[in-house]
Write a structure and sequence with these properties.
The chain is an alpha/beta fold. The protein has five helices and seven strands, in the order H-E-H-E-H-E-E-H-E-H-E-E. It is globular, with a radius of gyration of 15 Å.
Length: 174
């Protein structure tokens, strides 16, 4: 599965060698994409089967990624230890501070997930806790400074994706 266009459009904001946290990495499409571009990626997910697939693909491509199976409610991320954090198609409002805190001052947050409008398309998350309200992602990214954001209906592989996306930067002084 290919990486999100949101990440591919903005990956140039990251320097090769940057440490990147891929939170809720699933089968690793973003971790693998970033590792191919010279990033040092730590990819975390609760799903052992998805991580096994990701590890196998990384091995096939000769890519190094640190894969971690963890329960998101108890997993501790060292504060300010990553130049960037990426989160795609995952929403846990209670963990947003954990994700933001992992990013070093001056670092970036790349986030994209489904809006409530996704329900109309008959696939994807359906529960309120897994869907963003309009404008909510900007609030969740705060106090990071928004560099680029959107709320859009994007067709990917012939499927509609109603998503909110943001690239935001942590203040250099915090």
């Amino acid at each position: 599965m290919r990486p999100s266009t949101w990440l591919t459009w903005h990956a140039g904001l990251l320097e090769p060698g940057s440490r990147v946290l891929d939170w809720a990495c699933g089968t690793g499409r973003h971790a693998l994409y970033l590792a191919e571009r010279g990033m040092r990626v730590t990819a975390v997910d609760v799903d052992g089967e998805a991580l096994a697939l990701a590890k196998a693909e990384a091995h096939r491509r000769h890519l190094e990624v640190q894969w971690i199976r963890a329960d998101f409610e108890t997993f501790t991320v060292p504060p300010t230890s990553f130049e960037a954090a990426v989160v795609f198609n995952y929403l846990d409002r209670a963990r947003m501070s954990t994700i933001r805190d992992a990013v070093r001052p001056g670092g970036l947050l790349f986030y994209e997930t489904f809006l409530v409008w996704q329900r109309a398309y008959g696939w994807g998350p359906t529960r309120d806790e897994h869907l963003l309200k309009p404008g909510e992602l900007l609030e969740l990214a705060a106090p990071f400074e928004v560099i680029h954001a959107r709320e859009v209906l994007e067709v990917v592989d012939d499927r509609p994706h109603a998503v909110a996306s943001v690239v935001a930067q942590r203040s250099a002084g915090t």
